[in-house]
Write a structure and sequence with these properties.
Layout lengths: L2 H27 L8 H27 L12 H20 L2 H6 L8 H13 L7 H23 L19 E2 L3 E2 H21 L3 H20 L4 H12 L7 H27 L6 H6 L2 H20 L3 H26 L12 H4 L5 H17 L3 H6 L5 H6 L16 H29 L4 H16 L9 H16 L23
Antiparallel strand pairs: 1-2
Helix pairs in contact: 1-2, 1-6, 2-5, 3-5, 3-18, 5-20, 6-7, 6-8, 7-8, 7-9, 7-19, 7-20, 8-10, 9-19, 10-12, 15-18, 18-19, 18-20, 19-20
Length: 509
């Protein structure tokens, strides 16, 4: 490798490192006018630096004369699905009657066709890049540390940045840290916290272990401080998935110890916050009950025994997977029974969560029924392609579901995609995301499995949430990074290698 090529590699490495710091650390923290334009400023931040990165990536391709060999190019299902979703969004916008509005996403939280093309461009740009562990985990963990501490301080009413001062009293409980609405803060936590747990399970150095232990405590406390019930869906799913991502017996034993310790930290924080007069959500009160802490202790003990006696971690994973599938099926059947034949069974404090009505999840069931009824009225073309980004807000203006506000989001990202881009768009999106996450779960690369935990947590929490920055933007960025980590043959790529290959010394005659 020539000196010029080595210098070019280093420049590209610096570009990737700076870009990831700007997005994973700067994105969650950036503010302009407090909470009043937080969606716009975080979206602009992501778009601006992503475009700069793409231009730099293009310059690198031109400088190094990197070319795409079509004879060897074989797109995988995720790449085909990403392209299909972009084409569907373009056709849907053209057929909607409000092309430019749908492309820009004016009435769709800025998640229009243009953002899909940007996500797909990043997906392609990272295809041949090797991601260094420190370049990804350091900005991701640092961003989580800062916003997590701010969440805890805000929960105790300290408000160090003075962001709550400009809000009405009725709105002060709905916004937290520098992330905005508590539900969007929960989405970010579901994305950023599981990688911290997986990294801690893999740590070998004492200093790294101590650092991620502190982050683990911050993340657990922040999950209670955010006061969003949906955060427990994403984090719970990621925790359930974690044993399937472990490859060494030491990781399993460490997880068996950390699981009850996380429950103890959660219990201690909820008890301390309650005594200080801080508001605790109803689900937080349930999960901080001593009975649930005892359940985590028992689960950790079982994992520890399995880790000590199992013949192999791989065999344990297979058995655990079957148990989880059986438990999930039993849970679904139990929910169906409780909401049909077992309606008379008293559930106590769990009544709100296990019995579904229009008011479930702050009127989410009511919104979902309304959105499905709108989709049912679409003609065949729009059932396939959708109505374009912003169709929900446009239709709600003529048929209001809430008299005091315009509904612009379905409170379920998958239902939102169905309305915007139709059944074809939803299918492409599911193939795109699921195929990347699935590869990460089965990858031999530890960093890929770390990323898969965060992606899976966000994807599950998206069932009851809205696609909005910084959560959704960082999700697609992590999706691109995960694709780069799991892409076949990436180890042969020299770009961003820790050390450029050294020329071999000539053999002495």
């Amino acid at each position: 490798m020539t000196e010029q090529n080595t210098k070019t590699l280093r420049i590209m490495g610096v570009l990737v490192c700076v870009y990831l710091w700007l997005q994973f650390f700067g994105g969650p923290l950036i503010l302009h006018n407090g909470y009043f334009d937080i969606t716009e400023i975080k979206t602009v931040w992501f778009v601006f630096f992503s475009v700069l990165f793409l231009l730099g990536r293009l310059g690198w391709v031109i400088q190094t004369s990197e070319r795409l060999d079509l004879s060897r190019f074989s797109p995988d299902p995720a790449e085909i699905a990403a392209a299909a979703l972009c084409v569907t969004a373009l056709l849907s916008s053209a057929a909607s009657g409000f092309f430019w509005s749908s492309i820009a996403g004016f009435r769709g939280r800025w998640q229009g066709g243009a953002m899909l093309f940007l996500y797909a461009a990043l997906f392609a740009a990272f295809r041949k890049i090797i991601i260094r562990r420190r370049d990804l985990l350091l900005p991701l963990s640092a961003g989580l540390a800062v916003v997590g501490v701010l969440c805890v301080l805000d929960h105790f009413g300290l408000d160090p940045l003075g962001l709550q001062a400009g809000l009405r009293d009725a709105d002060k409980g709905r916004f937290i840290s520098t992330l905005g609405n508590i539900n969007f803060a929960g989405a970010y936590l579901c994305l950023a916290f599981p990688p911290v747990l997986l990294t801690l399970l893999q740590c070998k150095k004492k200093l790294h272990t101590a650092y991620y232990c502190v982050l683990l405590v911050i993340g657990v406390c922040a999950s209670a401080a955010i006061r969003s019930e949906s955060v427990f869906l994403g984090l719970g799913f990621a925790l359930m998935l974690t044993p399937l991502l472990l490859r060494r017996r030491e990781e399993l034993l460490r997880f068996s110890i950390l699981l009850p310790l996380m429950g103890l930290v959660f219990y201690a924080y909820a008890h301390l916050a309650g005594r200080a007069g801080a508001y605790l959500s109803s689900l937080t009160k349930i999960l901080s009950h001593p009975v649930f802490c005892g359940f985590l202790l028992l689960t950790g003990a079982l994992f520890f025994l399995c880790g000590r006696k199992a013949s192999s971690v791989e065999r344990f994973r297979k058995i655990y997977f079957r148990i989880v599938c059986a438990a999930a099926a039993a849970g679904v059947l139990a929910l169906l029974w409780l909401n049909t034949l077992g309606k008379a069974v008293p559930l106590g404090s769990l009544e709100t969560w296990l019995r579904f009505s229009d008011e479930w999840g702050t009127d989410r069931v009511k919104v979902w029924k309304y959105c499905l009824s709108l989709y049912g009225e679409f003609p065949l073309l729009h059932k396939l392609l959708g109505g374009g980004c912003g169709i929900l807000a446009r239709m709600d203006m003529y048929r209001r579901i809430f008299p005091d506000a315009v509904l612009d989001a379905a409170h379920c990202e998958y239902l939102q995609i169905l309305l915007n881009w139709g059944i074809l768009g939803l299918g492409a999106y599911v193939v795109w995301t699921v195929s990347v996450i699935r590869k990460g779960v089965h990858s031999s690369d530890p960093l890929a499995r770390i990323m898969a935990a965060g992606l899976a947590g966000y994807a599950f929490q998206a069932l009851v949430n809205i696609a909005q920055a910084p959560g959704v933007t960082l999700f697609f960025l992590m999706l691109a990074l995960e694709h780069a980590l799991t892409r076949s043959g990436q180890g042969k790529t020299e770009m961003l290698a820790e050390k450029p290959p050294q020329p071999k010394e000539k053999m002495k005659k």
